């Protein structure tokens, strides 16, 4: 499937919005953790579990959407998922208990992950393998706006109208995106011969999992991105309780830190003109591991000032701006016929590890920045070690498969 040149920008923007829906849903309500906990009569650790349930919903939901996107085409399952998201968001507006919020956030995630899976699959549908890393970098430009705008916007919405209105805003935004999908996104051909019975679905997933390049880069990229999810889970407490920032100040700091992610994702395009995706990912993971370890060490020694922790996290997320587009492209490049299933597994692996990282930050909570920085460091160092060990086990250089699956 190809797209006309004059529609290229609009399609990439729409794919970016679909990809950013999940991150925006996370980032916008982070400044409201304390307000939500107070209003619902609970503690911040339980509200953090609503973030974990969101991660679990995205991870599990992507497994469902992968086969549906391959069977019915990208558009119909995508629209259904977006309206599930809208319904759950409206439910969050009126929720009165922490348990209800945790449940609805899970359902909301089931809807939002349709956009994430479909966007990755459509990149592979619309663009040749040689361009996918560059397109993922362009999507990161849209995704990167989310952590810059969302927490700041969320902080002001909470200040003016209360945290319930965050979910009203998300419902309206997603309705607009759904209309764009219905009226702008080109149709993709369904595959009526693809069975939705458990055995062929499992077989399709197994074929993807047997692909060496996919496993290496899905696990590597997923483990690296989990450090970012640990930051998302722990930063509201660390920044507002440990360092004393207000909700609005936290939003601005969050946006500043996220600028490292978006800037790096665009510099990635320049590096790809001279270097391979595998090479860029390797050095970015090495730097992220070093920065993560330094962040943890300074936290343990109680040597982190507000400026210091912001600077180190800025650099940590900047590395992620190089890691995500390249590992995603390298993981998906071997596939053409089962892109939906591959995209679903990629997202599921990434978010499953992210959910564990998020939950560990909550479980290890000790009123300091150490739990958050420890998980961030562990994820960064582990991802680099996975890549090194995989490279030594496989002596051959990773290449794009010539036989589409």
Automatic annotation (TrEMBL):
The chain crosses the membrane at residues 47-66, 78-96, 102-123, 135-158, 164-185, 214-232, 252-271, 283-301, 307-332, 344-364, 370-390. It comes from Albibacterium profundi. PROSITE patterns: MFS. Pfam families: MFS_1 (PF07690). The keyword Transport applies. CDD domains: MFS_MdfA_MDR_like. Keywords: Cell membrane, Membrane, Transmembrane, Transmembrane helix, Transport. It is a multi-pass membrane protein. This is Multidrug effflux MFS transporter.
């Amino acid at each position: 499937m190809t797209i006309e040149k004059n529609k290229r920008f609009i399609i990439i923007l729409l794919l970016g919005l679909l990809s950013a829906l999940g991150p925006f849903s996370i980032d916008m309500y982070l400044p409201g953790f304390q307000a939500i906990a107070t209003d619902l009569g609970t503690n911040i650790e339980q509200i953090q579990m609503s973030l974990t349930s969101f991660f679990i919903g995205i991870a599990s939901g992507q497994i469902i959407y992968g086969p549906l996107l391959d069977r019915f085409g990208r558009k119909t399952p995508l629209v259904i998922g977006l309206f599930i998201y809208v319904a759950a968001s409206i439910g969050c507006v009126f929720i009165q208990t922490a348990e209800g919020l945790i449940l609805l956030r899970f359902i909301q995630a089931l809807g939002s992950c349709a956009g994430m899976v479909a966007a990755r699959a459509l990149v592979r549908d619309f663009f040749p393998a040689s361009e996918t890393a560059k397109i993922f970098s362009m999507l990161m430009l849209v995704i990167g706006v989310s952590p810059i705008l969302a927490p700041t916007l969320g902080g002001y919405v909470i200040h003016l109208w209360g945290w319930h209105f965050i979910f009203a805003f998300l419902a309206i935004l997603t309705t607009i995106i759904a209309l764009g999908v219905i009226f702008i996104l080109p149709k993709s051909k369904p595959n009526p011969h693809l069975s939705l019975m458990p055995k062929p679905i499992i077989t399709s997933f197994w074929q993807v999992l047997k692909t060496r390049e996919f496993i290496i880069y899905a696990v590597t990229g997923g483990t690296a991105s989990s450090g970012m999810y640990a930051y998302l889970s722990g930063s509201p407490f660390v920044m507002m309780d440990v360092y004393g920032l207000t909700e609005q100040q936290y939003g601005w700091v969050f946006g500043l830190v996220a600028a490292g992610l978006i800037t790096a994702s665009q510099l990635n395009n320049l590096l790809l003109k001279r270097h391979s995706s595998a090479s860029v990912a390797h050095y970015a993971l090495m730097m992220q591991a070093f920065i993560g370890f330094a962040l943890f060490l300074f936290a343990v020694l109680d040597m982190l000032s507000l400026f210091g922790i912001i600077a180190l996290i800025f650099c940590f997320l900047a590395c992620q701006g190089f890691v995500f587009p390249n590992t995603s492209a390298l993981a998906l490049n071997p596939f053409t016929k089962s892109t939906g299933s591959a995209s679903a597994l990629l997202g599921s692996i990434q978010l499953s590890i992210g959910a564990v990282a998020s939950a560990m930050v909550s479980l290890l909570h000790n009123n300091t920045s150490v739990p958050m920085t420890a998980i961030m460091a562990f994820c960064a160092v582990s991802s680099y070690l996975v890549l090194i060990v995989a490279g030594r086990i496989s002596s051959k250089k990773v290449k794009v498969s010539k036989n589409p699956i």
